[in-house]
C-alpha cells in the first residue's frame, strides 16, 4: 500500500513544540507539514488530482477498498487517516482519485442491476446510469459540499485565524457519506424489492422505508464524523440536527401508508421515459 499505516505522532503538547517557535534552525527535526513553504495552491491541487484520474497505475485501489469497507464497520478510522494526511501532506482532501473511481464503478454496476429490476431497456439504462453518476452523486455532491464548506468556514471555525476547510475535503466527506447509502439502496434493498417491498403490505413499506431511514442516517452520521474530526471546528453536532426530523418523517410515512421506495422507483422511471 502507498499509504503509511503508522503515521508520525503529533508533536503538539510535547517537549519538542517550543523548538519550532524559538529556534527552528537548531532543531534536528523537519518543520511540521502545515508549515512547509512549498504547499500547493487549491488550483494546483485540483489540477494534480484531475490529471491523476487518467493514470490508473498511480492510484492506490487497495487503500480505497479498505476505506470503503471501514466506512461500514468503523468510519472513524477512515477520518483518522485524513488527519494523518494533513500532518504529512498539509491537506485534508484526498490527493488520490482511486476512491472516486471505485465509487463511480460501484454506481454503474448497481445502477445496471437497478435498471434491470425496473425493466428499463438499453438506452433507458444508459440514461439512468448517467443520471445517477452525474446528477445524484456528483452534482448533488457539489451542492451539499459547497453548502457545508461555506457554513463550516463561516460559522463553525473556532477562530478566524484558523485555516479554512478545503472544498476538496468537503466533497470527499460527501463521497464517503454517499457510499454506504448507495450499497443499502441500490444493492441490498433490491434483494427484497420484488417479493416484499413492492407489495401493498404494511411490512412492505415498513421495510422499504427503514432502508431509507438507515441510508439517510448513515449519510448524516458519516458527514458529521468528517467535520467533527477537525480540531478547530466547534458545534459540529449541529450537523446531526436532521436526524430526529428524518425519524419523525419515517414514522409519518409508515403511518399514512406511503412506500418511499416505490415512489423513488417511479421517479427514477419518470426521469428516463
UniProtKB/TrEMBL annotation:
Name of protein: Protein unc-50 homolog
Family according to the record: Belongs to the unc-50 family.
Regions that span the bilayer: 98-116, 128-151, 177-197, 209-227, 239-268
Subcellular location, record wording: Membrane
GO cellular component: Golgi membrane
Predominant subcellular localization, coarse grouping: membrane
Keyword DNA damage annotated: no
Disordered: annotated segments: 1-36
Pfam family, one: UNC-50
Source species taxonomy: Eukaryota, Metazoa, Ecdysozoa, Arthropoda, Hexapoda
Keywords: Membrane, Transmembrane, Transmembrane helix
Polar residues composition bias: residue spans: 1-26
InterPro entries linked to this entry: UNC-50 (IPR007881)
The keyword Transmembrane helix belongs to this UniProt entry's keyword annotation: yes
Membrane topology: Multi-pass membrane protein
Organism: Bactrocera dorsalis (Oriental fruit fly)
Amino acid at each position: 500500500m502507498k499509504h503509511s499505516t503508522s503515521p508520525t505522532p503529533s508533536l503538539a503538547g510535547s517537549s519538542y513544540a517550543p523548538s519550532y517557535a524559538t529556534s527552528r534552525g537548531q532543531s534536528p527535526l523537519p518543520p511540521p507539514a502545515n508549515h512547509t513553504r512549498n504547499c500547493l495552491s487549491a488550483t494546483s491541487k485540483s489540477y494534480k488530482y484531475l490529471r491523476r484520474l487518467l493514470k490508473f497505475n498511480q492510484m492506490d485501489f487497495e487503500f480505497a477498498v479498505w476505506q470503503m469497507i471501514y466506512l461500514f464497520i468503523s468510519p472513524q478510522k477512515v477520518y483518522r487517516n485524513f488527519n494523518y494526511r494533513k500532518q504529512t501532506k498539509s491537506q485534508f482532501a484526498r490527493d488520490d482519485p482511486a476512491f472516486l473511481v471505485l465509487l463511480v464503478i460501484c454506481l454503474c454496476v448497481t445502477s445496471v442491476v437497478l435498471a434491470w429490476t425496473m425493466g428499463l431497456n438499453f438506452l433507458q439504462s444508459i440514461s439512468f446510469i448517467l443520471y445517477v453518476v452525474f446528477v445524484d452523486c456528483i452534482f448533488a455532491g457539489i451542492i451539499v459540499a459547497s453548502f457545508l464548506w461555506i457554513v463550516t468556514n463561516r460559522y463553525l471555525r473556532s477562530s478566524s485565524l484558523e485555516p479554512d476547510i478545503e472544498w476538496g475535503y468537503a466533497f470527499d466527506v460527501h463521497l464517503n457519506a454517499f457510499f454506504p447509502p448507495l450499497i443499502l439502496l441500490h444493492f441490498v434493498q433490491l434483494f427484497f424489492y420484488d417479493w416484499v417491498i413492492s407489495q401493498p403490505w404494511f411490512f412492505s413499506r415498513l421495510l422499504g422505508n427503514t432502508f431509507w431511514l438507515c441510508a439517510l442516517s448513515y449519510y448524516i452520521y458519516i458527514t458529521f464524523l468528517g467535520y467533527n474530526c477537525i480540531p478547530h471546528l466547534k458545534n459540529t453536532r449541529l450537523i446531526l440536527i436532521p436526524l430526529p426530523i428524518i425519524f419523525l418523517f419515517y414514522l409519518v410515512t409508515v403511518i399514512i401508508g406511503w412506500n418511499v421506495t416505490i415512489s423513488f422507483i417511479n421517479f427514477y422511471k419518470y426521469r428516463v421515459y
